[in-house]
Amino acid sequence: MQTLTPEVMLEVNNLKMHFPIRKGFRQRVVGHVKAVDDVSFAVRRGETLGLVGESGCGKTTIGRCIMRAYDPTAGAILYCNAKNEQVDLAALKSSDLKPYRRELRMIFQDPYSSLNPRMTVLDIVGEPLKVHGVARGAELEDRVANLLKRVGLRPEYMRRYPHAFSGGQRQRIGIARALALDPRIVVADEAVSALDVSVQAQILNLLEDLQAELNLTYLFISHDLSVVEYVADRVAVMYVGKIVELAETTALFAQPKHPYTEALLSAVPKPDPTMRSKRIVLEGDVADPANPPRGCYFHPRCRYAEDRCKTETPALRAVGQVGNLSHFAACHRAEELNLRGVVS
Amino acid sequence: MNTEKETPVYVAPQWKLVWWKFRKHKLALVSGIVILLIYLVALFVEILAPFLPDQTNSKYLYAPPQSLHFVDEQGNWGLYVYGYTSKIDPVALRRTFEIDSSVKIPVGLLVEGVPYKLFNLIPGNRHLLAPLDPDQPMYLLGADRLGRDVLSRLIVGTRVSMSIGLVGVLLSLVLGILLGGLSGYYGGNIDNLIQRVIEFLRSIPSIPLWMGLSAALPLDWDPLRVYFAITVILSLIGWTGLARVVRGRFLSLREEDFVMAARLDGASEMRIILGHMLPAFTSHIIAAITLAIPGMILSETALSFLGLGLREPVVSWGVLLQNAQDIRSIATAPWLLIPALAVVVSVLALNFLGDGLRDAADPYAR
Amino acid sequence: MLQYILRRALLMIPTLIVTSLVAYIIIELPPGDFATSYVANLAAQGDMASQETARVIREQYGLDQPATVRYLKWMQGILTQGNFGIAFELRQPVSSFIWERVWLTLALSLGSILITWALAFPIGIYSAVKQYSIGDYFFTFLGFIGIAVPGFLLALVLMYVQFKYLGQTSGGLFSSEFLTAPWSWDKVLDLLQHIWLPVIILAVGGTAELIRIMRANLLDELRKPYVITARAKGLPEWRVLLKYPVRLALNPFVSTIGWTLPFLVSGSIILSVVMNLPTTGPMLLRALQVQDMYLAGALILILSVLTIIGTLLSDILLAWLDPRIRYQ
Amino acid sequence: MKDESTLLEVKNLKTHFFLDEGTVKAVEGADLTIRRGGTLGVVGESGCGKSVMSYSILQLVESPGRIVAGQILFHRQLKCNGQSQMMDVIDLAALAPNSRAMRDIRGEEIAMIFQEPMTSLSPVHTIGNQIEEVITLHRRVDHATARRQAVDMLRRVGIPKPEERVDAYPFQLSGGMRQRAMIAMALACHPSLLIADEPTTALDVTTQAQILELIQELQRDLGMAVMLITHNLGMVAEICEEIVVMYLGEVVERADVFSLFREPLHPYTRALLRSIPRLGQIKQGRLDPIQGAVPDPYNRPVGCPFHPRCAQMMPGTCDRIHPELIERRDNRAVRCLLCEP
What we know:
Order of helices and strands of chain C: HHHHEEHHHHHHHHHHH
Number of helices of chain A: 10
Radius of gyration of chain C: 24 Å
Oligomer: heterotetramer
Largest sheet of chain C: 2 strands, antiparallel
Strand content of chain C: under 5%
CATH class of the largest domain in chain A: Alpha Beta
CATH class of the domain at 102-321 in chain C: Mainly Alpha
Strand content of chain A: 25-35%
Radius of gyration of chain A: 21 Å
Number of strands of chain A: 12
CATH topology of the largest domain in chain A: Rossmann fold
Largest interface: A-D, 49 and 45 residues
CATH superfamily of the domain at 102-321 in chain C: MetI-like
Structural class of chain C: mainly alpha
Strand order of the largest sheet of chain A: 6-7-8-3-9-10-12-11
Number of helices of chain C: 15
């Protein structure tokens, strides 16, 4: 097992998550959806790593593998815990996971379905505290009150049920639940996608404040490139179960090294009519993760594709350096291409 | 609305929201009260029935119903019924009865009569409404071919008919929750197998099967054993509906984010199922139970009616209707059909109640 | 499509096997051995059957062999010769006299299904489209009554009314002069004159249930966005309704044949007993009462197989209607 | 201002929903104009009434919703002998929802596409069937011609192998392809206005780009006007000429796209533009969110509907006086007491 460098808190190595496709009367396995297919990356202490991609690219699956909501098919998830010990979360039995459930927490996308409508805010936010035997009775109430204050809700509301709150407020409750056990890593899975634009900013600011205050590390999963650009220190771009590019945010947005990133950036409509530009419109549909094409998965839609792209699968490799951070891309032609980014 | 006024809704737990939603259904509310009354009757049979159900009286075979009077011709208050005069029909050689308004039979409230043990425990001999002289006839709903009081038999039958529904449904519920829960929770092959069994049970006609199974019950079994055998037979087929409801709820709940959130909180499987999932479908199950009871009642009635279910001396609505099987006896004594009315009213009320409950079961639907 | 039908038909086989097992278990349930009671019965009627007869019967039905062998022999008889065993009371092979009753049961059930559909379909559409109108409340209430009143009660009441006010005793499917007559056009006409009352009584319960299903399905479909799309095209309202939501609500409707059939067959049995119809109902009841188990088992098996085939047909019809199933 | 180029005018439209819990004023004063061949964007957050407003134009609002006031003037060009330019102004709000006149407009003159291409197409009819239906309904053509036109239309919206796909069911197509089929259906009769209600919200960014590109291209070729309803400010900035901003059922600001993004007048528009992260403007300080949330639809605030969340709220004024939509000389309009002359 490799050891983590001091600045790395979590390292995902060759992670695979394949879901079997079952069919027929006997539920035979006829194939696999390769939702996450051989993905490696590291999350650095105190940073926000953004994970972007289109629906079905596997970004949510990665988040759930790290949280061990799923049991990964293969690969390692190395994590350096509070006592500076290193464990492989992917190899742990579910019964041994409990201590890590305190240190790694998750914020969900849908502020409606992620809160049990039959429980009060006190019960929802207090549940992890009760489960881990941290607090009960009056002490539990005190701690929940503090958590609510911290996320900008009035503690008097803790006896209310979720249906008393708006979408933004519900998301704050979800954040309070995630913070209840003083976590070190928070996986935010599309945490602001279901919110109205005017409320989105409130939650983004809250997440930013909490990170500074509590020294949190975020894995921020989103399909919204503008949001990711705003919150992330580094960004990983996914396409059909693989990371195709990973770099420091400014570098990735200004000078992408993978044609898919370029197309993705160009596809985002910019809220400024003076910046209207020729969009790069990709042909066809996203590849089927149960039956991806040979070679580079992106080659059928890539305007720079060559013959070798159709046969050789490119590896994610360092193609540049910004400061002490490498710029990774999985493209045969990463160095020679001069791709268009977004400029302010 | 200001904050203070909103608070009741905001802090209302599930059962309160269900109740608020339920009470908007007036019909369901009334039905609920009717059902409550019927079960109260079933509970206090001994006090409510004027006579013993098997008390025969050869003097009053097929005596027609009398009506209860509160005031007599002279304007005096008092409870009484009129007596009968009988004459022999020379053609049919049968005794026919007419109400004789010259004979007044006084009746009273909480009259001493045949001794009984309430709930098999508390001894007593008071009957809510009975003739003061126990030898005088009082047939508010008429008499049957042995001169037994239909009203008393109807009241006694309530206990058996309403409880067979309840017991049968409880048995179905155990099977349904167990198998539906297994099916929904584990999925995969177990689910597949259970679904096949359910499909099979639903695709065969239930009555012939019930008939076959109950015909196979030994004739020398005592009534209690037959009663339980019949409930078991009914619930063997009846559990499928409940299992489907439970499975469906389990499947949809398993996908809910809040269940995953509880798992990520570190909660144990038991805590997740009991604390997070179960409360989400208790109200659905209660509604499903309410809707399943009428089926059981109807099935018992049908089987007993055919002579394959409960038999005399057990008294149930179906057993009572057996007397009304051929057109001749109905023509002679149409009041023998009154138990049918009890069946219809209780089934109707349970259906309305169940419908209302089902609509109110999920107050969080958006 | 063909593949779907084949697969679905193959899936039917285990169901059929289980059904025959259940029917056989019912045959075997009463205590005692068929041959002994058969011989005893013959003896009681003055027929001096020897131990030899009993031995022959035992051998023929394998009564001295384990239950599995007996079951297999029974099945073999049915599958190869259409031999369901001997009816104990009539002392005739079961297959020699049950088929007419089976056909009449089937005719009764199919007639009821058609009536049920003819009534439930338009009323269900009306109730959904005019939700919360007086008519909707009326039909909803009627539907509840139809569910709460079991068919045999309705039959009793109607027969009482008929007797009391028309002075007729009804019952049976034929007038007395046709009872034993061979089949002819006149007999069919006579049947039609008698069968409508039981058909309607049977249809009432099913109609009530189907109206509610149709109404609920259609209400669901009416709120789907594709209905708005159809309106936005400029289609007249009735064409919007019939082509789209009604068409989609038809799918769950068709799949209800699967359970309507067992429901109707069950209902017809009790109704036949009450109305004294020459269908399988009274015969099954009689067979069960006197523990004429081969006859009872044969009737249960035949009725169950017919409903299973009915379910299969409704599944195929559903697949034909719904491309999402067809192209699965 | 009323000239030959006006296609559709919505004047003080009000659509209310009458529910047991109370009346929801989903649209409470919408004013806008669409030019022939122009592109109008309608933006606002969820619950601002933009969808109900667009449904009102085609009288597709379902009970218990009803248009209670206002006019929807549609300037129809009567095509006699193919060339003539007779103008005919119809008030769509005055037509009965299922009248012949209204149905002749739907699909023929004004077509609509919806957010969810999966649920907006019937799952049990082939896409060909659904496209042919609209053609045979409005054009006197036989089945074969309608089918040929349907295939042509499918080709035109970029569906590969249209001769085969015409017999496909919606569930056999990907999300992007379904939305293309939906567009083919809407444009089959060459309407003069296409209303696109959140046409790309359910789609991924790259597919969204494809669909936007397609709509723009078809608009150029067919000369139709487009009314784009969306919550995405980026989308309106990319393809619209004029923009209408809605809040709680009211049009609060109307302007051409460049002026609006350069100099937003209404505090809500300004706050909205400040609160969204913009691509390519890396961390220029914190986002500036709008306080609170969109109010409950049963409890519209008294006075200006935005005042409880407005940073420039004038106590005693904004919470009492309901501002009018003021037309300005630069062809813009704004509904704010601060901006009144």
